[in-house]
Design goal:
It is a single chain. The chain is an alpha/beta fold. It contains 10 helices and 7 strands. Strand 1 (about 15-20), helix 2 (about 35-45) and strand 2 (about 50-55) form a beta-alpha-beta unit. Helix 4 crosses helix 10 (about 240-250), helix 5 packs across helix 6 and helix 7 (about 155-170) runs parallel beside helix 9 (about 200-220). The chain is globular, with a radius of gyration of 24 Å. The two termini are about 45 Å apart. About 20% of the residues are buried. Mean pLDDT is about 85; it is low at about 25-35.
Length: about 260
């Protein structure tokens, strides 16, 4: 314990002591006998810094180091209410919404000037870098959120999922906004102050529905955990939507009273 205390005072804080088995040929770091392992264990256990794993797990190890980032994504066709759902979800999971389209617009301003504004498509790499900088700033400030991506700017859901998994680890969950076509049409008419849905608009809405369905299929393939996908009906009242989200995300507390 004295050597560990000296190391922390002179070098860096020890996040955790991790014990794991040597299964599957993984190498383990052994604590030398002259470090008084039993006493060292006791000291770190008091600070909740003594961790164990049945076998080596890189994601679990990152969590022990405080490097695990919880993230999710909300998807749905235009006018399905995904932005409203993402914002409502924040209060239930201590979330922070990341709208990559908004970030892309902000990045575009830095690529041009008032005299010559940037025209064209902002490279995904620059948007991704801006997202990483935002999350890193939160970590530096000691803030911890579940990051909720309100859609993405990538051409394919596969590309977004690969980026997110590579940077943050496995997806915590993802939400599909299920919305009936009639509700979409009514919202379109209200937004555009029209009473009719023309053939061109109907075709466009139908194409958007196909794109949304393809997006869900890609995410199902990239995030194979069936429990990660949550379908929420969004062609409902705000009160019903909130109740549905609470049913899926609110903490459930069970109190058991043992009578003697």
């Amino acid at each position: 314990p004295e050597q560990a205390a000296y190391f922390e005072s002179a070098c860096a804080k020890i996040c955790a002591i991790v014990y794991t088995s040597a299964n599957k040929g993984e190498k383990c770091i052994e604590v030398p006998g002259n470090m008084a392992v039993a006493n060292l264990d006791a000291v770190f256990q008091k600070d909740f810094r003594l961790k164990t794993m049945r076998e080596w797990d890189q994601e679990q190890f990152r969590a022990f180091l405080g490097q695990k980032i919880d993230w999710s994504v909300v998807v749905g066709r235009n006018l399905s209410g995904k932005t409203q759902l993402a914002n409502e979800l924040c209060s239930l999971v201590r979330g922070k919404v990341i709208n990559m389209a908004t970030i892309s617009a902000a990045v575009a301003k830095t690529l041009g000037s008032e005299e010559e504004p940037f025209e064209g498509e902002v490279p995904c790499e620059k948007v991704e870098q801006a997202v990483l900088e935002l999350i890193e700033a939160d970590r530096a400030a000691g803030e911890k959120f579940t990051y909720i991506f309100d859609g993405f700017v990538h051409k394919k859901a596969t590309d977004f999922a690969e980026f997110a998994k590579a940077q943050f680890g496995p997806c915590s969950f993802w939400v599909n906004c299920a919305c009936d076509t009639k509700a979409i049409e009514e919202r379109y008419k209200k937004k555009n102050e029209t009473e009719e849905i023309g053939e061109d608009v109907a075709a466009e809405l139908a194409e958007q529905a196909k794109t949304a369905e393809a997006c869900c299929k890609e995410l199902d393939a990239c995030i194979p955990n069936p429990k990660a996908r949550i379908n929420i009906q969004t062609d409902v009242s705000l009160e019903t939507l909130q109740a549905s989200l609470r049913g899926s995300f609110a903490a459930k507390v069970v109190i058991v009273n043992h009578e003697k």
